[in-house]
């Protein structure tokens, strides 16, 4: 397929590599500034900072923005950020910043814009900022913030200093209402205080996923865009910020329109990537004015090409046998994902589907040709179409490829009466634009798309990934647990496409959002090469009874990947897993007895037993774990795109799901990984033309009995990467034997040891047993003539 991207204007300066730092009060700008010499020495070109604008006090992540007008004081304020930029620049580094356009903290105490809306209503100067459906109820916005029903907490409400208080919460008062009796005062506000459980069904503002304390921002409005981006754009214009990572663009009403406005506002001065999760063979829209994604698609490629497909299938069979789970109850990926989608759309996102239904009812009532659809039928049609969207969301163009005729047929099958099933065709027509294109129609399409992305994220990443667990290394954002392996040919084809269409896209292996760091996933992935070893380890752990077999499988596999017994870190990750799974306990309906049993099990088993050293067979896997991890690291650092290192990953880094992976950055001693990282990053920085825009990617194919175990490619004919695939399977098959690799013409130096040289060309076949004699990976650079 051809691409139109080559016809676009040239991109801004492209980083050679970025390094992500998680800012928080315990690691502010000054701490990042002290780390600059170390990070510059690694060879990256840019520091990537988590959100820097004002956030809820004490926030460990910064995505709960409270004020776009100022840099976060807890981090050191604007002066601290500018000082960090100056120090970074003195060491040859630029800054990339995480930008959060989709949502803000729904905290009137801290969010100045929301506070003004709650004080003055929809006519507030900030009345256009938030996706509030003022006419959904009594003309007031619901704030689901009370710990219990209002009558139960009424006596704790008090008016002080011109605000309404409940414990640590503060709410502004409508002008002239301060002296009213409490009940009259509550009724007179532009908001209605409600029990937090009302959010699921009664919420009348758009939120981030199902997080009601993050309220959606209407950046599609030019006034809102200007007000929420002025400070960031000032920092870009001043050269403080050179790149932007756009958080959750799928939550926006019009991602493309937003990105076009942002590109115009920055004047093309920023390297910009989007946190876009691509599904299956989905590609980033060609007409988005960005450099690419943040890299979850690359993560899936790298992990997948180093995963044993046959062994993964064996593990899936073992998993079904061990857990006793039927296909629709966690034993089959597709069925599990679909069941989770139905649960989320009907339960967690009930308020969102209700809002869509109201919009559809209004449009049908205004069109004589569409009248007399029952609201329940329209809602059912909306739900059935939502669960059948095969990607995160539809966009301006190509919606017919997402809301397909096949999806409509499946949705109609949910209706017992064929005449009522006509609601599916009506809703689909409204969404495709064939039944009208008024502002109301466009608003429905936008909100459907926004809800679709929330549904996909919540049902897949936050539910189904915890219910289906044969090989946990595949259960990562952008991954496909039903197809954890990627064929070598598929990997090469995808890399060639990236080099051609998105050469400046981001690539990652570990992020602040990965459920397991790359090193943890690498250890787990090795189990696909030895399902029998995993089965043996599970049988040895039977002496520690688990509350249920799925939990046993998940917790022990987590512990195996983590590599060291640590109940303080493994315990919270396992507890989060059972709550996200939502079958025996959940975040909102907790089962204390079950959770105590989970904690006791972890303390007695996965948090105490050093599983990777528990048997000779498991201990023997350690060299293969290192080969897996180092292979993934080198491939990510040299494949097409801009590689990002997450904090601490220049060395072995074991981390589990947040908050475990968001601890403050703390430089440690170098190890074997650091040597590899420095070598690759030094090459990228010294020879950007070999890796950046305009570079090429050429697959290299080995020959001989073990050819399938070598993944190799050349970048622009100047650098060769070669790594060992499935090293355990290779050893079991007798090693490399006479397997050879033909290097491109010329002389080649081993960058990792700085000593060895090799000769390329058809007449100089290189024995892989020689190339990989000292380590399972190789990085070669052409020696100039």
Protein described:
With about 775 residues, the chain is an alpha/beta fold. It is built from 28 helices and 26 strands. A hairpin with a 2-residue loop joins strand 8 and strand 9. The protein starts with 17 loop residues before the first strand and ends with a strand.
Topology:
Layout lengths: L17 E4 L7 H14 L3 E4 L3 E3 L9 E7 L5 H14 L3 E6 L3 E3 L6 H9 L20 E6 L3 H4 L3 E4 L2 E4 L2 E4 L9 H6 L3 E5 L3 H4 L4 E2 L2 E6 L5 H16 L5 E4 L8 H12 L4 E4 L17 E2 L2 H10 L3 H15 L9 H16 L1 H16 L9 H12 L18 H8 L9 H11 L6 H29 L20 H14 L4 E2 L10 H9 L4 H10 L8 H14 L4 H15 L10 H13 L11 H4 L2 H17 L3 E5 L25 H15 L1 H4 L5 E4 L9 E6 L3 E6 L2 H6 L7 E3 L4 E4 L6 E3 L5 E3 H4 L5 E6 L3
Parallel strand pairs: 1-2, 1-18, 2-5, 5-14, 7-11, 14-15, 15-16, 17-18
Antiparallel strand pairs: 3-4, 6-13, 8-9, 9-10, 12-13, 19-20, 20-21, 21-26, 22-25, 23-24, 23-26
Helix pairs in contact: 1-2, 9-17, 11-12, 11-16, 12-13, 12-16, 13-14, 13-15, 16-21, 18-20, 18-24, 21-22, 24-25
Residues in helix, %: 40-55%
Low-confidence stretches: 1-10
Supply the helix-strand structural class.
Answer: alpha/beta
- Strands side by side in the biggest sheet: 16-15-14-5-2-1-18-17
Radius of gyration: 27 Å
State which percent range the strand residues make up.
5-15%
N-end to C-end Cα span:
37 Å
Number of strands: 26
Largest sheet: 8 strands, parallel
Number of helices: 28
Shape: globular
The whole-number mean of residue pLDDT values reads 95
